[in-house]
Amino acid sequence: MERPQRRNPVWNRDEAILLLDLYLRVGRAPSEDLQVRRLSEDLRIIAQRRGEMVTSTYRNAKGVAMKLKAMAQQDPAFRALGRKGLRAVSIDAQVWRDLAEAPVQLAREIDRILTAEGIAWSIPVSTELALTRTQGPVPSFGSVTAERLDSECVVYVLRFHGPLESLFASGQIPEGSIVAKLGRSNDPMRRVSELSAGFPPGARLGWTIIATVEFPTGNAAHTAEQALLVSSELKGWTLGGEFVVAPEQTLLADLQALADSRDATPK
User: Quick one: pLDDT band at residue 130, thresholds 50, 70, 90?
Assistant: First the structure.
């Protein structure tokens, strides 16, 4: 008697968070999409390390693409189109509610998951994924006008991921210290993407948000950012520009002090 095929386990919360991050970047992308295939590989690596039985259908690219279609049921913009998709899933609803409108918290969750699994800066399993070319935008011409509006702005601390021992001299990065970038932006997720886009997709290099403090205006954020940079320089942490090598907890405490100072300022 032929044994029934074993069904793949339901997606857990961490997997759903990784899926949400992908959906917010690529939407209902097909299985052939580069980033869909990369998430599939990461999920399969995680499962193998956890002792799961990883069959050919386990979190494969087709399955990830189908899950993206299911995640679309949580997207108000997709539902507004009146189009039907796959059946909504409760875990998708939970992570959408918790993280879809919280980009900084989502970035922290992604970093937590991948770092815990040891693949935060892993090289893709398939060399072809790292070497797939991209096509730049078609040139456009003509006048452009814009109006700059002041709004909430955050001071951020980014941690650099990568083989530091290959990039810095011996002893330049003390134990317990990190290489970080300090800055300000009203869209820190976009800033992280811009900075990380300067590295080849297959390189073990990248940036992750580890802390932010929000200020009511751009000028207030600029003042706080400069205070953090000056403090870092006086402590001998600077690597030039907005980059520092610093004890992580001390650096985060300095950022928290800025937040406390902000909260103590009379309204």
Answer: very low
